[in-house]
């Protein structure tokens, strides 16, 4: 069976990608990151999802001491969803972590080359790349080219591909796809804040709520603060 490394954050997008990759016949090796983010709820969720899917799970721990994001600085407040800047698609949100996907994909690439995986799956989608520069399709194409030039697998013509099956889908489409694939959405965590319950107010909570509402589906994890 062909192997794939799946970047599993614990959210509904990456969980859907994991189940999509499994359906395509890949032996999935899940990779999560403990990089000093403001909470660990997403890592716990990722572990539960990988267990439910029957897949191997590894956590890579490292530190970004210079911070540069509200997701890394617990003294900075996570902003509530405002909707501002979304139409122009040029506003970089406060939740952007400098070069995070470059770092994540570099770890994933090293792991994939070591275990002989032919693909890396990541759950980037259309709402991500409207604000996050390292979620754009052209970024992934460029990264694949760099991987071909900078790895033994690439030199030996055994290039590792980056697969982004959700990159042209919105949240509603992703949720519908996940439901068809049997994704355990009740195990996922989307909130940027790490409270006992999702806040229901941050960007991530907003897009999740809107996605389920527009899909006409019940969110099994829809218990919010307040």
Structure description:
With 226 residues, this protein is α/β, with parallel strands linked by helices. The protein has a single domain (3-215), classed as 3-Layer(aba) Sandwich (Rossmann fold). It is built from 8 helices and 5 strands, in the order βαβαβαβαααβαα. The chain has helices spanning 12-23, 41-53, 100-115, 126-129, 137-150, 152-155, 171-181, 203-215; strands at residues 3-7, 27-34, 56-61, 119-121, 161-163. Strand 1, helix 1 and strand 2 form a beta-alpha-beta unit. The longest helix is centred in the middle third of the chain and has 16 residues, at 100-115. 38% of the residues are buried.
Domain count, please report it.
1
Task: Output mean pLDDT.
Answer: 94
What is Rg?
A: 17 Å
The helix fraction, in percent, is 25-40%
How many angstroms does the end-to-end distance come to? 47 Å
Beta-strand segment tally:
5
What is the CATH superfamily classification? HUPs
Write down the CATH class. Alpha Beta
Please name the CATH architecture.
3-Layer(aba) Sandwich
Instruction: Give, in order, the helices and strands.
Output: EHEHEHEHHHEHH
Which of globular, elongated, flat, extended, rod-shaped describes the shape? globular
Main sheet: strands, sense, barrel: 5 strands, parallel
Q: Write down the CATH topology.
A: Rossmann fold
Q: Ranges with pLDDT <50 over ≥5 residues?
A: 85-89
Spatial ordering of strands, largest sheet: 3-2-1-4-5
